[in-house]
Amino acid sequence: MTEHSLADAAATLRSTTLTLLRSPLSRECWSFVYERGHRFTMPAKWAALPRHQQIEQLLKAEDRRIASGTTFALDSAAAQAVSAVAHNLDLPLPFSAEILPAPSGMIVAADPLVDLASGTMVAISWGPPMDGFGAGVHLTWWGHANAQDFPGAPTGREVILMPDFDMHLPFAPLVDARLWHREVSSGALYSQVPLRAVVAAWYALTTPGIETVEHRPAAVHGRALAAQKAKSRGVRIATAATTGAAEAAIVARAADFAAQLLTPSPDADSLTGFNEATPTPHTAPHGVFAPEHDHQLDAEGRRTAFLYRTGAEHWHRLEQEAAQTYPGIFAQLEELRALEHGQWRSWCWVPGERVSAWLVQAHGATVRRAVWDGPRIAALGAWRSGGRHALLANPTAEPHGPSTPVPAGLLAAMPACGLGLILPAGQRIRLALTCLDDGLAGRQDPDDYAAASSGQLVVVSDEGERARGLRELTKYSIFLTGQTLQGAVKATQQYFDRAAVRNGQAPQPADDAGCAEHAVEIGSFTGPLTAICASGAVPADVGALTGRKEPAPWPPEPSLLAEVQLWRLAGTSAA
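User: That's the sequence. What structure does it adopt?
Assistant: Structure tokens below.
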């Protein structure tokens, strides 16, 4: 295939893909694969949308990437070199922003790059990360499919493109194991070689020694793309003198980059390779409360099952959002917790301020963003690490008020480093995650020491709005000091006022009426917490009440299961 014919082929494939994405057939195809278990990569918040709206968002996002990006092509020699590098599993392929030939685009090769389940890799597309993801790219590789295989497809054997795999790929030093000479799980080899082919193709387009020149496709293809409002209608073609020379150039650049990454900085933490016992699953597991079993339950049981799924799906979205924004964050913090054992008190998972510092250090977050995200991720991480246990609160129980004694006993009685709360009140359901935070860690100021030495209860709540994301959660915190909840709220406010003054900010007024109001809010969480953590309390395993599982023992233990374990006190109703 000559260079100009390759430009025509690449432009035609780009136009064909845009036509597919904008046609009713694409909705049928994406729905078909979705219904059969495929899960597309998308922002966690989209999971709360109806299925057809998720598909619309996915199609629009892919359309933007291809329509606004640059089109590239690999000639035969370059394509064969990319394929050879992809199959050489002993060669690490680091990925960073400097490897990308453009912020978004599409690649077509003159020769097949790798084999896929659907045939061969036809094209590669990529673009900026989707909303809520960390630094990196969203990429898709495409294979052939027959339109007749999908409901609603026209008759005949029209060949169309279908996404074979899509993912978020973070920039180094966060490394996808499939790009390195590491053992990968048995099912990952399917995506390992194609992913390596994608990154090798980017190397080929940005490596000295492989020439890339822009060519214009035939006018008919340019006019078709113009009608589709596609930008940058030229095709940049990479040509290599020989396959061996191109392969050697890619290998040399990848090896040099890998050597730089593998040389640790003297002041850098080494936190890689930690395997989580309970990683975030692709979908929220419902266990014994799966909706297909609801017909076997009475009215109260069905209400309980609904509450369980509401909480499980909300917290699952929060896990996904945190992992998308800060890839590997929970594994990193678990390892950090092990490395810094003894630097904070045992009832604390990881202090929120330490989490914030890690977000700045390892993920490049701004201080302002890290200070906001840190406590929320700390509460979510403590809940996950403790086994994903949640309490179904009694909606008729008396909440704590301003004059209620401070629940300082929680420091010794909390059975897990983090607990979830499902607080039903009529049609309003508040979902909260609670944890104990050692605010003393790293404190040297005597004024800070007095309050922080008591320990802090942190609560992050959706306030009854199920679609809230991680950064939209309301955070409550109170130092467990003094005699009453109102007094503890006032001491907590004074602590944060001193911090504000040191940062050159004006303190918030800590008047008695405001403190009493805040104490009432805090009391809605401390009430069910102290009830279930009280001496002699024997909470029931709600899942076991369905008769579909053996009851788990109380106090709860860290679980190897990725599903939520729900508890309630005897007599608690879900009504």
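The CA atoms of residues 75 and 110 lie 5 Å apart.
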